[in-house]
Amino acid sequence: MTDSAQAIEVSNLHKRFGPLEVLKGVSLTARQGDVIAIIGGSGSGKSTFLRCINMLELPSAGTITIHGETIVMKKDGHGGLAPSDRRQVQRIRSRLGMVFQSFNLWQHMTVLQNVIEVPVHVLKQPKDKAVEIAETLLRRVGLYEKRDAYPAFLSGGQQQRAAIARALAIQPLVMLFDEPTSALDPELVGEVLSVIGDLAREKRTMILVTHEMKFAREVSNHVVFLHNGIIEEQGPPEAIFGAPKSDRLRKFISSIH
Ligand SMILES: Nc1ncnc2c1ncn2[C@@H]1O[C@H](COP(=O)(O)OP(=O)(O)OP(=O)(O)O)[C@@H](O)[C@H]1O
Ligand SMILES: [Mg+2]
User: Fold for domain 1-95+174-179+205-257?
Assistant: First the structure.
């Protein structure tokens, strides 16, 4: 039975790069409205996990189900998996909003063009409708005045807010954030966290890789501590940050304060 409230279900995900097994059987369910924070040391597999969810990396084993639809994969002949149906992957990917550490805006397009690009050219939305939605989103992230500027003329915080507006423009089922503030100057972190915090308070489903522990504690309802490619501990933020059970988690938390 498919649980309609289930936004993402990842089951027993493995990923190896050659001899290196980066994910060693990770399972995670995000229900609609969940804000899941993923924390863990450098190299623990956080980005790889997020990238597998939207198939930017192909898992070596395991299943991924988005909104009740399981991505169909077949053996690729090299010990890994490949999607059986590229169109299914495209369709599912078009429902996931991804925000990376490094903004990844298209530099030759204005902010507004960045936001409407996928809605118009991939999702075939009428342009005037896409512009209307984009302008509303840009207002929400405080960038309406910058809609005709090119990314190079924006601060890092503004670029990241534009990237969030772009991800929201596809009306995603789930937002995936990979350390969205770690490339920012400290004084610009707050403006981006404030936008993400608003999304969390609206109960938008999100999976957020972050090293901002205070923020993770405030906005998430579930925290996952990844260590060496497995979930070492998970639970509500009060338990994870207030009463960590595993020594590794305790060490990790004390190392970043
Ligand atoms: N394309 C790749 N080819 C080979 N190894 C990779 C590749 N991508 C990631 N890795 C390795 O997989 C491991 C996990 O990387 P990943 O980027 O998922 O870690 P992370 O938890 O996101 O770390 P960070 O906090 O530094 O971003 C690392 O050892 C990394 O070197
Ligand atoms: Mg990473």
Answer: Rossmann fold (3.40.50)
